[in-house]
Amino acid sequence: MPDSRNLLVNAILSVLALFLVVLSLSTGTVQVSLPDTLKALSGNADPMTLFVVNELRLSRVMAGLLSGAALAIAGCLMQTLARNRLATPGIIGIDNAATAFAVASVVGAGLSVAPSAMALAGAAAATAIAFGLAGANGTRGYRFIVAGVGIGAIAGAVTQVMLSRVAIDAANAAYPWTVGSLNARSEHSVTILGLGLAIGCLALIATSRALNTLQFSDAVAIALGTRLKATRILGLGLSVMLTGLAVSVCGPVGLIALLAPEFARMLCRPGKMPLMAAALTGAAFMVIADLIGRTLFAPLEIPVGIITAIVGSPYLLWILLRPSPRSLT
Amino acid sequence: MSHTTTATLAAEHITLAHGQFTVAENLSIRLPPEKVTAIVGPNGCGKSTLLNGLARIHKPRSGSVLLDGKDIHRLPSKDVARKLALLPQDNSAPEGLTVADLVRFGRQPHQGWMKQWSVEDQQAFEAAIRAADVSDLSERALDTLSGGQRQRAWIAMAVAQQTPLLLLDEPTSALDLGHQIEVFELIRTLSQQGKTIAMVVHDLASACRYADHMIAMKAGEVIEEGAPAHIVSPELVRELYGVQCDLIPDPSTGSPLLVNVRRCT
Amino acid sequence: MLIVLASLLYGAGPVSAAQAFSALTGDGTSDATFVVTELRLPRTLIAMTTGLALGLAGALLQSMTRNPLAEPGLLGVSAGSGFAVALAILLGATTTTLTTLVAQAGALAGCALVIATTRVQGLGNDPVRLILAGATMTGLLLALTSMMMLMDQRAADEIRFWITGSVAGKPLAILKATLPSIVLALTLIVLVARPLAAMALGEKAALGLGHHPGRIRFLITITVALLVGSATALAGPLIFVGLVVPFIARAFSGPDIRKTLWLCVPVGPAVVLGADVISRLVAAPAEMPLGVVTALIGAPVLLTIVRSGRMPSL
């Protein structure tokens, strides 16, 4: 069934995201004009511009683009599974746990496991624990969220323990993760994130119809022929995977997972999970937040996690505190 | 709108439980085809649990629910959804969802990987909108509708599934008298078009008036079953609800009418 | 009492328990006497005061908001106070008295915000939204604090020491600076305890019994701000203490807020002191930040409260 409004929204968001990418590529200590940036991308510019755009900036912007999209999709999925707009991976403590594990792999002397794998393990562990503690209600209901808040607090504390116990150099190497920054990424984990995102998108396209029925109560979803358990496990698994991989690149920039779906929902036709629009919005957010962080107090760089927290928290508070938000729970 | 296919639904020796608490034990019922069956009984007698059991939402601890003679839990969920539609009690919808969007969801069981929205889907969608009389509302968001309109929209979704079987859990709870009648008459019409319908009803009087077949439950057991005119008696009312009453036939339809309801002395 | 002894007897320094004991009784070696009376005694006293203040503040907040998860740390009161202190340090404040005042001002702002939040229609009855609002506030304030740390490397080290929470290395002077506020807060609690117990029946019932809910709320806000501000000035923001202490106290006292408050008086100091002892022993010879220990102790308690189905009732 064609849906012209959503197509239009996605087209506009794609253009916006692309524009931000180019803008971000052109901006920095060395300013490159927009036309020159485009030329550099297509491969014909002077060596200096080529180096700045393609070598220095492109990989960073790509990392932002991919992690923003992954976090937004993960958030959108989790919100639908919990049928609660506040239940995003960041709030449920998955980000913090993934960070704790990633930090462990950076500071841990004996550990040589890649941060991606560790972050994934952390994300999975946090989700499993939150599930276990939530009891029979599963992802529904407040227990899952409050259990997640507790797990997040423990994971945060563990991260601090690790940082306070290791040599200052190792601590400094791991610090960016704890606030969320695109500076700390390794090329390796960006590649893995890209792969994960591609697999995730395929799985989402294949199951989008069943996933959409999860917006209703369980009984309605079953009555419409959805295999509830399988669909939920798939959705949760994808959400955890994308969060873990994104965190291994950019750290716990959890608010993206909340803000991007929220924006997407405002723009799109209601009734469907706006996964595509959320991914594009998340990517755009991440790129622009990174751009602001790099340029606002240059040469000092503000980590992207701090920018999103300062911009996003007031909005989150507004969602929480505005009177009678019937749709919250 | 006629259905060439019919389907039978029956429960055989099912035991239903919530955790440790057994709601009903060893229940066996079957729904008479192309009739409206009302399940009645006092609060907590297990009538909604039974309906959810029949609709495969609640898995019985033992025994089996048979759809066309086959165990419903062994059939692919999508196949079941093409034969059996359910209107549950808890039907919250995403914010801003329009009636048309909701009704389109009813076509999901008929769609698949390679089968996108087809001419057949469009026809069924339009027929359901007409049957439930929600054409004027189709672009409205669900949360802006009145209770009766919203309930009709949900019924339209179930109708769009084009199933021979339709189960409804308290379709008229929280509706005022006018809206109740609206919904019950729609149910009657659907039954006349050949659907087999079962509904949990709170109000005994409406059950008497709109059902062909009645299952009276108390404390997890079926204590009486049959046409309302045959089974509803002052004794049954007393056993179910602990009140005394007199019964007279409805002057226009002949169905039993409860009058002079009072506490037992 | 046992924990007090333990706190004095065990520690990271090369002083054995026996030596410490003799130092206490007056005839130890001069080294041991120095470690015990000059280093550990102040630390013990500060930990006890912090525990007392946070425990009482938690009990008051929970009673007033009728929300068992209302906790100064979780709700952002401590973060507000910590943020204010970080700001003061950045602007060059060094004296302990000033820090205390600033911490209290920050706590007051945070506290007022929380109370305003619970007054929003429907929110007071919704523990989860309150917690999330608090977590968001905390996140925002931490982000702002981090930004200040990035701006000024020198202040960063001092602030970083603050925001994890510790009772070590603080002079007794800081305790003296907070003492008046704590005494004032305790007096207010004595005054407000009875009306507060009536508030547990609902605002209308309290009004019917001749109390003034608005005035009580105002007094409690002040009291909590004094307590949390003092505690933050003493030990930095300690998360979960205000949750754990009333939780334990309530287990013994039942729902009566007056009994709960009384029980918080011994339980609060015991919890923080216990956590401090653990923080010294676990990672010996190094020390683990106290805030980390309380978070590790508190999170399971949070989960327990959530798991016990009785949550919305208090």
From TrEMBL, chain A:
Keywords: Cell membrane, Membrane, Transmembrane, Transmembrane helix, Transport. The lineage of its organism: Bacteria, Pseudomonadati, Pseudomonadota, Gammaproteobacteria, Pseudomonadales. The chain crosses the membrane at residues 7-26, 58-78, 90-111, 117-137, 144-168, 188-212, 233-261, 273-293, 300-321. It comes from Marinobacter daepoensis. CDD domains: TM_ABC_iron-siderophores_like. Its main location: membrane. It comes from the Bacteria. Pfam families: FecCD (PF01032). This is Iron ABC transporter permease. Coiled coil: none annotated. It is found in: Cell membrane. Belongs to the binding-protein-dependent transport system permease family. FecCD subfamily. It is a multi-pass membrane protein. InterPro entries: ABC_BtuC-like, ABC_transptr_permease_BtuC. Gene3D superfamilies: ABC transporter involved in vitamin B12 uptake, BtuC.
TrEMBL record, chain B:
One of its GO terms (molecular function) is ATP binding. Residues 9-244 form the ABC transporter domain. Gene3D superfamilies: P-loop containing nucleotide triphosphate hydrolases. It is a peripheral membrane protein. It comes from the Bacteria. This is ABC transporter ATP-binding protein. The keyword Amino-acid biosynthesis does not apply.
